[in-house]
Amino acid sequence: MTREADVVRSLVEMADTLVDDYDVVDLLTGLADRCVSLLDVSAAGVMLASPSGGLGLVASSSEAMRLLELFELQAEEGPCLDAFRHGERVGQENLQAGAGPWPQFSAAAVRAGFQSAVALPLRLRDVTLGALNLLGATRSPIAEADLIVARAFADLAALSIVQHRASTEAQRLNEQLSGALTSRIVIEQAKGVISERAGVDLAEAFTRLRTHARKTNQRLTDVARAAVDGTLDPRAWAPASP
Amino acid sequence: MAGDRLRRILAELAGGESSWPATRLCAVGPQITGANGVGVMLMSGDIPSGSLCSSDDVSQLIEDLQYTLGEGPCVDAYRSDQFVTEPDLADPQTRRWFAFTPPALQAGVRAVFGFPLRVGTVRLGALNLYRDQPGELSTDQHADALVLADLTARWVLDTQAGAPSGVVAEQLEAGAEFHFAVHNAAGIVSVQEGISVTEALIRLRAFAYSHDRLLADVAQDVIARKLRLG
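The joint structure predicted for all components is written out below.
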């Protein structure tokens, strides 16, 4: 199978995750693994920004890569951090311990057997979500064709993450609306119950519910629930004492 | 092209303002889609919970019928998550809505269309269009309705996002019909008959169905103590 066919298949597989419920970590682990198997790189790592803005390591293609990325975060220098901060691709064809833009990171990378690094931001329009780090074992620059493929994977991953977050938020809001409506419905049902028990109109029934909730220091929804369940203290609907 | 359509519809909705009430969605719906009336039905779980807005009495009736009977274009659009079309209720291609169709026809409804309301995979309800003449929607009208449905769904969630926790957003309630009277009536009936509120709702619905009345109307009679379910 040609590399092109593999790339297309990978993109389709990743795109499938857009419709199903999926795990972000699984998605990004798949991204890192695909980069290693389809591109001329030895290892890949993915970092995502947390709500507070700091980067965290989410996926890596090997244990050596994982340790290196953790080191990058600890040392607060490295290609992922720069790609994320600037929203632009960064790279170093020839990592030298103690030299270049990332002296400490380069030293650790060389010790781990890596000689070159390229990092791409995970971006959707003007939002940068994280970064994809690609490390090579040789000093050769990463091929343009490989960069194009890596860019496509990174873009699809970014889109997936944004969609997933939006979906989670929409789900939360819908549940909140449902819950709020249900609480309101219980209160309306309770108004009917009290109206019949006390022989008063709905407005007065509501007043008695509220008054009882206040007097007994309970939430209105709890008092309403008790009224509907039939467990409410009958004094709740008694007329107010003179 | 798609961007133009969205911009045009947003412009009609906003009318110069930065936000709009739910009622506006239904008020401008007819002129956007070419329908006689537009209504938005909200669903909770698998059942109708009420209408967000209706552009006119007939649209409100369409919603009331679906609320009472549990069947109709919005219900189907929501459950199937697909566009539902009935270009001629008087001569339908698909035999369905046996209880919904006669009263709808009597009210002057000839064609109905249901569009699911959703944000991503989250489903909220359906947008309903009706016409007093038979016929399908044109491609443009269909596309406009899709945009309107999309905007309406997002509007519902965005509006709820601004509400304090545990409360239905004020702007969602204004112009909406959540049939609270039906629940008031269920409370009354539960005490009168010594049954649970759930059972009371079932009895109210059964009474409405067998007497060919809207649930909302039966509820009003119960509240006014004009009707007692025995």
